[in-house]
Amino acid sequence: MQAHEIESFLAREFPQVSGYSVTEMRPDGLQMRLAIEDRHLRPGGTVSGPTMFMLADLVMYAAVLSRIGEVALAVTTGGNIDFMRKPAPSRDLLADCRLLKLGRVLAVGEVLIRSEGQDEPVARAALTYSIPPK
């Protein structure tokens, strides 16, 4: 799938997901942007942990779909996230996903999230997806 196809699929199948866009496609994964809004912030003026985990999960899902096509029932079976720095509340978040393994049944990936314009990651996630049988 191409970037516009992934975005159309997400808009159609997951209308509750908004503010995300695919910014880069690579053979081993892709990058997504989340446009930060007030609803993403927590007390203390930073992006909330659940927002960052949702971004990590969504970019992994998009990376898997980019390789296997429209498989709505590919699901997360495992995930963990390390929060390393406070994200900038006034900058979009960029999430880079690299697929480490894409098999018939499981996909394993790693995600680095950073605030736009900053080199240091604010979070790192590892996720595993289950791919349903054809």
From TrEMBL:
KW Ubl conjugation (keyword) present: no
Family matches, as CDD domains: PaaI_thioesterase (cd03443)
Keyword field contains Hydrolase: yes
InterPro entries per UniProt: ACOT13 (IPR039298), HotDog_dom_sf (IPR029069), PAAI_dom (IPR003736), Thioestr_dom (IPR006683)
Stretches assigned to the Thioesterase domain: 44-120
GO molecular function, one term: fatty acyl-CoA hydrolase activity
Keyword field: Hydrolase
PANTHER family: ACYL-COENZYME A THIOESTERASE 13, THIOESTERASE SUPERFAMILY MEMBER-RELATED
Family as reported in the entry's similarity comment: Belongs to the thioesterase PaaI family.
Protein name according to UniProt: PaaI family thioesterase
Organism: Paracoccus solventivorans
